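Tutorial, part two.
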Amino acid sequence: MPRGKLGPGAGNRLPTGAFAGNLFLMRDATGLNDRIHARMLASGRSWTAEEMGQEFLKLRGGSAVALVCALLRGDARFAEEAPGTWVARRAAVVPLRARSFAVACVETGDRTRPDTWRVYLRPTGDAGDRSVVARTEVLYPADPAKWDAAFRALGKRRIATLHPGPLGRVRQWMGRHWALGGDEEPVLDLQSLARLAVIREGVPPGESAAAARLPELFARWRLGPVREEPEGVPLPAVQLLLDRLLELFGDATEDDLARTVEEALSPRAIPTDRFEFTLRDLESAPEGSGIYRFFGDGSALLYVGKAVSLRRRLASYFRPLPPEPTKREELLRAIRRFEVTPLPSELEALLRESRAIREHRPPWNVQVEVHELETTPPGSWWPLVFLAPGTDPGLASVFLLTGSADGFLFHVPRGAPAAPDLTLAAWLDRVITAAEPADTIPPEASDSEETRENARRAGIDSLDAAEVRLAVRFFLRERDRLDRVDAIDLTDGQALAEALHRLAAAQPGTV
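Running the prediction step on this input gives:
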């Protein structure tokens, strides 16, 4: 596509020497619904289809209203409380029966090496239609493109699995190594629901884990043999189990089921006697993205993690414990205190988490090395400049990558553009004068110590090589969704600074 135009494949791009009047780019409907849902939840009120058309489509009139209603109908997260007026429902209050699912199994092998595991994924039919025959995807951590495509293809489907812990671990590894998101997305824990079902049938809670194994469940409920496809992977049996559990619990919401499971399994209280904080302190954690750290005796760093919502992620560690010992309980016994660092975007949190793990090697983190890029961005020019989507209402994260191993991070305000930052503009001017086609600049020659020293003086953070690799991988995966500026289309640093301020002001401020 010619440079300097808005269009598919470019995210939001600004034309040479001017600003686009309409910075909105229609993306895929799933992503648009996600943004609408997040904004409506954050507002805490209902919205009319007309104002959503103006806000999200930049359109007015009956056609905009009709398009909004067509997008939201059929999405269980939205309810039309009056003609043309919509309210967003939190995902946890949608009945299970109204959802669509994909079933997953994890083949772990060496339990200390998530990079060697396999994930088998198969979508089921849409809610109320179990006749759809879907293809099984076999996903390897060494193949991030296939992995990302498979999870994107799920759309609104929730993953249902007997292995929520291993699935979370391998997705976390993928996020840290390949800058793939989604590791915090909730899954439907079929093991817990199966335990709840057998407890209701009279099995004591302490014996429910054994009674909820697949062979025992299939014999108890006369579901036939446990089918495996491929051999050793019981995906067909897991799908049949899901159908059975939806028959039992389909009218309940996930929030209701979570509380019921918690009560039925006789949870144990968190051992808080050695904490230097109270559980109420967790409620003061920010809602937005950032990184968190757990410390043990002598302020030894135990674990570093990143989160889209710090408050929600921290709370997940301190929920009541199940009857049987878990790895989470071991970590809780070692924790003495925690710290949080709010950050404007999840990508920035991912980079800061990666740096902390590589520098400090916390014993409870899976150590991940970020290998060199397999390829440079095709058709791109250095410097590569884009804004990462984020939740901070005041600041937007700007990534300026000057090569495949060098780059910088700084922030611009989301509000109405103020007078340009002359120091930033002067620094940007020096950087963009070196812009050349990406394949003509060796990575080791794309930056200099003088540039980094000037960046420090301007309050700009230099990224190390591993962080740049993660940022480039994020860009390659999300390039159709990102707000970006082709620096070669702009005349000087002041024009680039103004363009970034305009893009930041236009961003909705939600992931």
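Residues 381-506 form one domain. In part three we will examine how such features are distributed along the chain.
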